[in-house]
Amino acid sequence: MLTGSPGSRSRLLTWLAVVLSAALGIGALAAPADATERKDGTWTVTQRAGAKQDPLTADIRLDDPRGALSLSVRSGGTTVLESAPLGIVTTAADLTSGLRLQGRQTQEITERYETTTGKERRRSTRMTQTRFSFTGENGARLDLLVRVSDDGVAYRYVLPEPGDVTVLREASAFQLPAASPAWLMPYTPNYERPHTETTAAAAPAGDFGYPSLFQVGGKYVLLTESDVDGRYAGSHLVHESGTGRYTVELADERITSPGPLATPWRTAVIGDLAAVTGSTLVDDLAPASRIKDTSWIRPGKVAWSWLAGFGAAQRSLETQQRFVDYSAAHGWEYTLVDDGWKTTDWMPQLITYAQQRGVKVLLWMHWSDLDTAAEREEILPKVKGWGAAGLKIDFMDSDSQARLRWYDDILQATAQQKLLVNFHGSTLPHGIQRTWPHVMTMEAVYGAEQGNVSIRDVATLPFTRNVVGSMDYTPMGFQFGTRNTSEAAELALSVVYESGFQNFAGSVKAYRDRPQAERFLDQVPTVWDESRLLSGQPGDGATFARRHGNRWFLGSVTAGAAATQRVPLDFLGGGRWRVDVVRDGQGGLVRESHVVDRRDTLPVATVQNGGFAALICRDEPGRTTCDRPVDRMPLTTLTAGPQNIQAEPGASVQVDGRFLVEEFGPATDVTLTATGPKGWTVEGPGAETGQLPTGKPLDARWTVRVPADAAYGYSDVIVAAGYRVPGRSAVLRSDRTVRVFLSPPGVDFVSDLPFAAERNGWGPVERDMSNGENSAGDGGPLRIRGMVYDKGLGMHASGEVSVDIAGAYDRFTTKVGIDDEVTGEGSVVFEVIGDGRVLATTGVLTRADAAHPIDVDIVGVQRLTLRATDGGDGINFDHADWGDTQLRLTAAPRAY
Predict the structure, then answer these.
(1) Helix, strand, coil share (%) of the chain residues, nearest 5
(2) How far is 518 from 330, CA to CA, in rounded Å?
(3) pLDDT-based confidence at residue 52 (cuts at 50, 70, 90)
């Protein structure tokens, strides 16, 4: 019981509120003031004067006699959220009814903070908060915190008692006017579904994910949540058929946490579309940064090779070096190597190669690679020791409390190692980029890698998913014919979509075929000082202006017919400005320039489902472009061939090398050399030149002599180019490998024979590589439990290959198993069939099994068939390797 004068009790209550608020991460507090109570028993919380738009008011009502709480929200005189229930149920108490108010307190919260990513780096926020304190069943305590800002309303529950608390459910809901237009996404825990355009009541009954957007009159309401971590679980919305009611449903049936417990903020961003898209409310509600020194955190552009070659590109050192070279040539900060690299051994070599060229490397990992403390303690220091800059972590696919606790652990561990993070297969940003500023972006979107995103969904995402945080949509996949945007609209996504890492998904050829796209992408940043929506409507299109330093960038996408867009320029300062526009023209992208002032309207012709991108700078005498110099390295190519040679011991083979500066030359002090394995002889002078200009190749040829006693299998001849870049002292080196295969006498390999018949569960059967699933040649090395096989077949169950051997061989030997590239639980049964008769079969083999040897007599066999069948659990992950598939000629020496 508090004693003393009313004034001293008030000061003490204020001090206690400040302490508790700080403990709960609420932020800076000003002097308290009571919320307003209306005569009908409703309390109102209103943002103070100075709001940029109609003031928002949250109405909280405690029904009599039920003692049940509800909340509604008004914008000016319009009700945008109708009365909907509040409350929470724990194993100790049902706090959805029988509540009695014990006190309330209102305070102003103001904060200024900076972020490493986002639509606006420097943030300031001002919110009015009222804490309502209630008691309920068995004297249980419940505090309801309601915050109102210029751009939204949020509330959370605080269970202030110490000790563990187990939450069973929330009564929380949002009630929209039934006829409100709605843009909704059916819920999945990775948020990778397209949006549905409907109304609040007409949407089907079922689960919908955040953020959900509704239009109420001239205002918009975006529903989501903030400050979600391992103390709690994520949630989604459940729609009641035929109504505007959307109820919050937790991902777990039970959530247990130590008290006092503060739940996530149930958040509604409210205003016109400019206010909604410009809102930082989700970040404003989140805890402050837990990283004091953020100087190592660098957003940037990323060359991402997945959509330019899928798994095969990730397993090829040469391909990844090509993307590094491209990044270095265009001033892009990063290259990302995706799923598949872990079956290789060259990653440290690639990172060193990239570091020499000023490019940082990001690595893909499955979340289960890092789901224990022991794995994190082993793997994170290792990749950091290699020099990796960050990780793309994938396939979390859950909003459960257990998975959110994993997020807490991995975020702390990666921050300690100073590794940047991109989450894929993930939950939404819930303010995570404020609390953990090394999170550069998150997926949680039906993005470009889905292959055929509708133009209306492309035009909806700026108003929904991208409002709440960086979105890794992976634009720029120019090489795909299924894209539903024009080329200029695709380029515009580099501005329309905000992401701290922009993982650009084009192939090197696709970029080079579009020089105006290259030129713009070389200039566009990935983090912004200011962002403004200039025009647009969900599903129809969006035009954004974003400022970085003293330059503005425009991006516009349109779902619809060709038209002339007329862009207002009143966001510019006084004086004259130069605008360099990139738009669709006949035969490709074209660039045009205008000189304007803020009173002008910029006309841009756009094609169907088109758009444009633009760069704006101050107009000055003699200025002909808004481009700034880019720190470039020469884009070079080293080739060596032939890539594969079959030879016999004692033979000689010829090897050729060529080095070419494709762009941004010259290179200086260029040399071409070749080296062979120990005991092999390489004859030839190589080549060298003091300066190699762009477009002129340097060629060399060598004769390589194989020793008579050389061992069976592959050996490597290395062709190397060394060169310097003007103005830099370090010698850069590129290597290419020519593989020379020496066959044992009297042995042929199935992979060298023509196939009489072939079928495969996914993609073609691969020769001398694993099954890449998509197209010929996209596999990796044949590798079973760490053992690599130079020759063999890569299948995917159910698959088989037949070869006609005409009785020419007497034995067939091989080693079979599941390829190491598999990340799931594959299972396969292998069979060898001769002229329709089963000669050998294995039991069910999984990726946990070592390679299984097969050695069978095939005397007289005319047709040999190798078959891989499903092990009984479906064909997912059934990558079946036939390693070292040897056919011994009938007259061959028995040693083989």
Answers:
(1) 15, 45, 40
(2) 8
(3) low
The helix (run of H) or strand (run of E) holding residue 426 is none
CA–CA dist 691, 669 (Å, integer): 6
Sign of the torsion formed by the C-alpha atoms of 757, 759, 764 and 766:
negative
The torsion defined by the Cα of 111, 289, 228 and 14, in degrees rounded to 10, comes to: -40
Predicted local confidence at residue 11, as pLDDT: 39
804-824 pLDDT, tens digit per residue, is 999 999 999 999 999 988 877
DSSP 467-490: GGS-B------TT-TT--S-HHHH
Residue 114 is a catalytic residue: no
Element (H, E) at 596: strand 588-596
Helix (H/G/I), strand (E/B), else coil: 757:
strand
Q: Given a cut of 70, is residue 556 above it in pLDDT?
A: yes
Tell me the backbone φ, ψ of residue 721, rounded to 5 degrees: -115, 135
Q: Cα separation of 580 and 83, whole Å?
A: 50
Residue 286 tokens, joined: 């989140």
CB neighbour burial string for 430-459, b if at least 16 within 10 angstroms, e if fewer: bbbbbbbbbbbbbbbbbbbbeeebebbbbb
For residue 469, give the amino acid letter: G
| DSSP per-residue string spanning 520-584 | HHHH--SS-SEEEEEEEETTTEEEEEEEETTEEEEEEEE-SS-EEEEEE-TTS-SS-EEEEEEEE
C-alpha neighbours within 13 Å on the C-beta side of residue 499: 27
Phi, psi of 353 (to 5 degrees): -55, -45
pLDDT at 736: 96
Nearest to 645 by CA among 685, 700, 704, 701: 704
Give CA–CA dist 403/206, Å, rounded.
Answer: 23
Residues 184 and 350: their CA atoms lie apart, in Å, by 43
473 and 499 Cβ atoms separated by less than 8 Å: yes
3-state secondary structure of 499: coil
**Identity of the residue numbered 842:** T
- Indicate the pTM of the whole model: 0.90
Count of CB atoms within 10 A of residue 630's CB? 13
* Residue 678 exposed, middle or buried by CB count within 10 Å (0-12, 13-18, 19+): exposed
Name the token pair of 877: 């992950």
The phi, psi pair for 570, rounded to 5°, reads: -75, -5
**For residues 518 and 699, what is the distance between their CA atoms, to the nearest angstrom?**
29
Which tens digit of pLDDT belongs to each residue from 297-317?
A: 999 999 999 999 888 899 899
Residue of 143, 150, 283, 394 marked catalytic: 394
Q: Is 274 left (phi over 0), alpha (psi -120 to 50) or beta?
A: alpha
Q: Is the Cβ–Cβ distance between 302 and 443 less than 8 Å?
A: no
Q: Which of 426, 409, 412, 415 is nearest to 390 (CA)?
A: 415
Q: Which contiguous run of DSSP H or E holds residue 9? A: helix 6-23
pLDDT value at residue 894: 45
Q: Are 671 and 686 in contact (CB under 8 A)?
A: yes
Token pair, residue 755, equals 């196939």
CB count within 10 Å of CB 173 equals 22
Per annotation, catalytic residue among 59, 150, 227, 449: 449
Distance between CA 118 and CA 481 in Å, rounded? 31
Annotated catalytic residue 648: no
Among 359, 230, 309, residue whose Cα is nearest residue 774: 309
CA distances in angstroms from 320 to 311, 315, 338, 382, 503, listed in the order given? 12, 8, 10, 20, 15
Q: What structural domains and CATH numbers belong to the chain? A: 32-175+214-284 (2.70.98.10), 635-742 (2.60.40.10), 747-889 (2.60.120.1060)
How many Cβ atoms are within 10 Å of 531's Cβ, its own excluded? 19
